[in-house]
Structures are given as structure tokens and as C-alpha cells.
Amino acid sequence: MACIVCAAGQYKAASGINTACDGCMGGHYQDTPGQSACKACANGKYLPMWSSTTSNDAADDCTDCQAGKYHATTAGACTDCPPGKYVAALASTECDKCEAGSYQDHDGQIACKACHNGEFLAAWSSDFSNDNSADCIDCPAGKYIETTGDTCSVCPVGKYSGDTHTTQLANTQCPDCLALPATNAHWNHAEGQADDTCPWVCDSGKNATHGGTKCDDAGAALTLRSSGSVGRFQIHSSGAIMLTTVSGNPACLEAEMCATSGAGHAGKSTSASHGRRLSDMDAQFESMQASMDAHFADLNARVAALEAK
Q1: Is residue 178, in this structure, part of any structural domain at all?
Q2: Who's near 204: CB < 8 A, 6+ residues apart?
Q3: Cross-strand pairs, 45
Q4: 9 lies in a domain?
Q5: What is the pLDDT of residues 42-76, one digit of tens each?
Q6: Which of 66, 75, 150, 281 lies 20 to 30 A from 159 at CA?
Q7: What's the chain's Rg over C-alpha atoms?
């Protein structure tokens, strides 16, 4: 009796007494009758094992692995990508790793999920990374990230970001610190401030005024002798004029200016302890004006010389 030729989709590996042909295993096909082995599908494809006379008998029977699945070689079925990985393409032989700022907590996915804005997460590094939303971390105080990524940026000078554990607000940006005086001041702190009270200082030759909200020219002082007593006149940047007599008592000579600058007592002093009335001082201040102007000019010249060094 003649031997029977194995049909396409089947094979027989050994010679001798064989009662039946074997069907191709998963991931294999045979498109030629009478063969001793089946052919493997291309990597990234799958094909269930032989099941009928019309299966596994052509290369077209091999099917691409679906998106979210892969196989390094070939088999009867593809494997889901594990958490922390994904694949969007068909016929994949491996899965892609979640990029920085993303994670995936399910099997067989075609993309990773982005962390919330203001959170960071490094790219996949192990089978236990980027596989849970808890892997995403809030930017710490003093840092920010507008969307998400692998690291947060330090807030620049003049800006800050708070502690998200207390504010419950994601650090997606760095708000401005409390107002810096419009002129004559500069920030005096490092980057990465954690609250809005960022330190600042007045520029050289300027003094803080108006409750520490402005930086103005430093006031100049003159010591004068008049009518046998010594009084010290302080000319404030606001224009307020202060007189301290030999008794050490201050008196404001320009009530309106003192009220706005906070210098001395509001209202003109008429105390007998000052030894003079304000009306008597008017003439003195007129005669002092030339000397004061010269004194200020000299002070300004000295400051300019120091700053130029």
C-alpha cells in the first residue's frame, strides 16, 4: 500500500510506520504538501495551531499581533504588554516603555497615561516603575513644572512656589513674590523660594521708607548752633524736617510730610522745651537752605564716587 502525502497545514517528521500526519503547531504553517516540518510565522505574528484542513496552510494565515500586544518570535497567541509599558503598532516584537511623566497601570495598552500637571516621574527603569499613578510625584516647594516630565525646574529669583502638601495646589508655575519696590531695589535671595516673602534690599545709597515698601534717597543730617543751643536737623527723603534739641526730644517741623512719612510726631511742636516756636525757625531755615544744598551736593558726589569704585 502506498503512503499518503501529508496535506498542506500538516507534516510528518519521521519515516517508517506512521498512521497519520501531524498538524502544524501554533505560530507555524505549511503551504506545501508532503513536508517533514512546518514553517514559522514572521516575528510579531501569531497563528493558532492546526484545527482543520483549511488552517495553517498559507503564510497569510499568520496574523499581526494587535496593538497593546507583542511576541518576540511567533506563537499561537500574542502577549499583553505589562503595566509600565505599551505598544501602539501592529506586529510588535516588544513593548515600548512609558516615557518621563507618564505611567500605565493596566495590561495590553496602546499608550501610557500622563501624570497630572505639576507632577514629575522619570522614564521607565524597571518592571516595578511607571506602573501606578502613585509613582507621579508633586514638585516640591521652590520648584515647578508647567505640564509633566522627569524633573521639576527651580523657581527663578523673584518668584516662588509653595508646599503642595499644605496648599493642595500643583506647582505648575511660580507666582511673583510679594511686590518689589518699583525703583531703587533688587532681590536679595537665591532661586527656589518656598513662600512669597522673598528677601529684597535697597540699592546702594538708598534707604527703605514708607513702612519698608519703597527705597528712596538716604536722608542727610546737619548739626547747627543757634542762640546758644545745639539742634540736629534731619532732612528725610519724604521732605519731612526733624529737629532734635539738646534735650534729645524730636520735633517734626512739617506736619503734613511727617504724617505721610511716619517721621516723628504728627503736627508742629510748640513745646516750651524746644526753646523756640516754629515761626521763629522760618527765617533760620531760609538761611540754612544754601548750606544744606551744598551739603547734599557733596554727599551725592561722595556716594557716586563710592559706587564707581
Answers
A1: no
A2: 303, 306, 307
A3: 64, 74
A4: yes
A5: 999 999 999 998 899 999 999 999 999 999 998 99
A6: 150
A7: 43
